[in-house]
Amino acid sequence: MHIVIIGSGPVGMTAGLLLARAGHRITLVDRDAGPVAGDDWERVGVMQFRLPHGFRSQCRTLLRDRLPDVYEAIVDAGAVVVAPPGAPDDAAMLSVRRSVLERSIWESASREPGISRVVGHVDRVEVVDGRAVGIVVDARFLAADLMVDASGRAGRLSAPHRPIRRRVDCGMAYAARLYRLRPGAEPGPGAEFVFNAQHRGFLILVFPHDHGTFTVLFVRPSEDRELAMLRDAGAFEAACRAVPGLAEWTDPERSEPIDRVRAGAGLTNEYGRQPTVAALVAIGDAVCTTNPAGGRGTALGLQSAAALADLVAADVPIEKLGAELDRWGEAELLPWYLDHVEWDTTLLASWAGRPVDPDGPIGLEVLVAAARDRHPEWMATLNLFFGMAVKPAALAPLRDEVRAMVRAGWQPAEPDGPTRDELAALIRAQLEQPIPA
Fold first, then answer.
1. Which residues of 393-406 are buried (b: 16+ CB within 10 A; e: fewer)?
2. Stretch 129-141: mean pLDDT, rounded?
3. What is the C-alpha separation between 155 and 174, in angstroms, rounded?
4. Calpha distance 198→188 (Å, rounded)
5. For residue 115, is pLDDT > 90?
6. What HEC string does the chain produce?
7. Which end of the chain is more exposed for a tag (fewer CB within 10 A), N or C?
8. d(Cα 87, Cα 380) in Å, to the nearest integer?
9. Which of 306, 334, 294 is nearest to 165 (CA)?
């Protein structure tokens, strides 16, 4: 078949490589002309390109097992394979900047026989008698046997042909900054995986990357306008100095910032069914979008690319591809969407200082607190869950036990470190400093 893939991000390109190597002719369509050797890549239309990513074990094993040459190119480009302490090799993730990973996949896809590229803006999907027959790119028609919407969270090309998506605002926003370790410097605490610090009113993550780089991420409630001022570089650095552990990572003797502070907002959890017209399907964030703070997006997206390739390889008729992908999505994607909606709701409640309600949802941060306080044996299951090796349903028995603990009077302890109000006061003091003459 001739298959047109709209969107040349990691998910679209992975689908393209898998399908091309199965003998299909692939056209990747994207507004971006791609990276230029020796130049920094300012990716067009991808807000999160410079923001931190965690590429979970599912990403690594899928690329390693099904596209081994692409996987080796990513590792050769500097990606570091990191596993949680004591975990097996298959639990290892890739620590790498998205820009490095995506450039490696882009270059591999561009060399692949059977894949061609078209640079331009997709105006619409052309549908005749209930069947997609091609796309219109900058007013030019491009015919194909199958159209794949991999245009990401901001893409809406298949929306006119699909049921309305479920959509819930995450209620969160973030500020992030990229750093590089100084020559010979060792990483800060938690470097063997990901540094994670819960505070009353906000969350901090540190993502180690390739070539000694790492990103610091502050996540806050969207409505918190004072913490929104973390987008100021001075306020960001002052906040880093105030947080135990993070202060070690960002100590000027250890590391230096190499990018401006980048802000992200408008985050949503979304899930949608496949288009109702034949020969048009959707994968990746075009189907399921989750709060990026959970680091699940690329793992779910690459799995959806592989699911599409497998269905095509199984000779599923084009007219039935959408229905089969819907069945797969309800089993493999929907549980993670529902979990993230609940996770975000309970995290915001925790940040607001509300006590855990035994009759309401039990958040992940509460499960972790209960495990550390009374049930350390739970961490084995929780680590499998955080690695997405088991689905959210595996936590149901733990949540039932926590409800019983709460009814008996237990509540999570207050987190260590600065509170939201202390951080806000620090930011105000920083912003009120006079500008040097």
1. eebeebbebbbebb
2. 96
3. 22
4. 17
5. yes
6. CEEEEECCCHHHHHHHHHHHCCCCEEEEEECCCCCCCCCCCCCCCCHHHHCCCCECHHHHHHHHHHCHHHHHHHHHCCCEEECCCCCCHHHCEEECCHHHHHHHHHHHHHHCCCEEEEECCEEEEEEECCEEEEEEECCEEEECCEEEECCCCCCCCCHHHCCCCEEEECCEEEEEEEEEECCCCCCCCCCCCCEEEEECCEEEEEEECCCCEEEEEEEEECCCCCHHHHHCHHHHHHHHHHCCCHHHHCCCCCEEECCCCEEECCCEEEECCCCCCECEEECHHHCEECCHHHCCHHHHHHHHHHHHHHHHHCCCCHHHHHHHHHHHHHHHCHHHHHHHHHHHHHHHHHHCCCCCCCCCCCCHHHHHHHHHHCCHHHHHHHHHHHCCCCCHHHHHHHHHHHHHHHHCCCCCCCCCCCCHHHHHHHHHHHHCCCCCC
7. C
8. 10
9. 334
Whether 172-264 and 2-166+268-336 are alike in CATH topology: the answer is no
**pTM more than 0.90:** yes
Calpha distance 231→76 (Å, rounded): 33
**Mean local confidence (pLDDT), 139-165:** 90
For 421-433, how does the pLDDT look when each residue is reduced to its tens digit (9 = 90+)? 999 999 999 988 6
189 with 182: CB under 8 angstroms?
no
The 10 Å CB-count burial string (b at 16+, else e) for 342-370 is: bbbbbbbbbbeeeebeeeeebbbbbbbbb
Crossing angle for the helix pair 396-407 and 364-373, nearest 10 degrees?
Answer: 70
Q: In angstroms, rounded to a whole number, what is the distance separating the alpha carbons of residues 346 and 170? A: 11
How far apart are the C-alpha atoms of 207 and 188, rounded to whole Å? 11
* Length in residues, the chain: 437
- Going by C-alpha positions, the residue among 190, 183, 296, 182 that lies closest to residue 243 is 190
Nearest to 12 by CA among 108, 150, 125, 117: 150
List the beta bridge partners of residue 16.
none
pLDDT class of 194 with cuts at 50, 70, 90: low
CATH superfamily, domain at 2-166+268-336: FAD/NAD(P)-binding domain (3.50.50.60)
CATH 3.30.9.100 fits 172-264, yes or no: yes
pLDDT for position 437: 45
- Domain positions in the chain: 2-166+268-336, 172-264, 356-407
Q: What is the C-alpha R_g of the chain?
A: 22
